[in-house]
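Incident log, entry 3
Record: Cytochrome P450 (400 residues)
Problem: checksum mismatch between cached and fresh output.
Input:
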Amino acid sequence: MLRGPRVPGADPGTDRTGDARVPRVWRIRSHPAAREVLRRREGTTQAGFTAEAIPSGRLRRHPILLSDGPGHDAQRRAVGRFFSPQGIERSSAETMEREAVRLVGEAVREGGCDLGQLALLYSVAVSREIVGLTASPLEAMSRRLVRLQRQPDVDLTRPRWGRSLPQWALAAVRGLGPLAAFHLRDVRPAIRRRRRHPADDVISHLLDQGARGADILVECVTYASAGMITTREFLVMACWRLLDDEALRTEFLAGDREEKAAILREIIRLEPVVGHLYRRAREPFDVSGCPASADVRPGDLIDVHVRDANADAQVMGEDPLEIRPHRPLPRGVSPAGFSFGAGPHRCPGEHLAITESAVLLEHLLDAAPRLACAPEIAWDDVVAGYRLHGMRVEFPDRVA
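Fresh output:
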């Protein structure tokens, strides 16, 4: 669906000023080199998702996606139970089924729907119960989460992220208003509710750990961006892929949950929602997995090209750009490639994203939709991923 990857490899980006003192940018495209960089527990820090723009002194604790070191590892262990297969089955299975039936049923009765909007409501409905953001109406909160994502372009390889002063002013205008609305209408009511009635969710856990309102707000924004919104994009992409390939769609509908998960992992390997993962070097090291020597030095930015690394034929085997569920892979290689990251910053929500996508797509495709309008493809530089807009499906064979 999207443009195919470049030939895997690794190359040093040239600094844009010609000044040798300016940190270099290393672009990693091979699977072994990407794995080596992402699995490093020492010597690099998170540089993507605006991590370097959040001042450490303003928050008592950095959100899990943006932190590093022992504190980050402790946070991951503490919240891991919410995203484990057992935790998801316990807390989310009923919600997934209920919301999929409700939303697909409404779309069928109306004769069609904007799939992006349906996928947004579904992914927010599932994830917000895990986080604890259940004190406000679903539709209104979903709209606020979308507004939070509307930011000017960024380029992490350039000074000041490549933004001019007017662009930074626009970012503030676009960001602060929706952030305040999200805090006042969604996060703060959820905190009040969980103070009175603790539950088995992330907000209750954070309150138990002594987190303040600002810390919980940033954590909720992180889960919204990294979980709810990205899942929405993947649901649209996966449905587009399945509607475009009758044989694959038939295989998906006939398969059990394990088979459906294998197909979805293969789709997200080829169409990663987050296309680049960034790390900042804090100490010198060599990347031995590169075809050419990469002598990384402190301050260098490392840009892992996920789409390219996921299509490295040396690891993925024959036809790396084709969808082949259950393709033979070397030991330790994820079927999804690096679409959920790797190492200390590997996304804890992989099982949730795949499971909830399988449930919705099963109900949606069983209703025999027809693609009425293909989506428009845009790019979000903040999360380094695609955005799909305007995909519409209709249900001509279903009687309301």
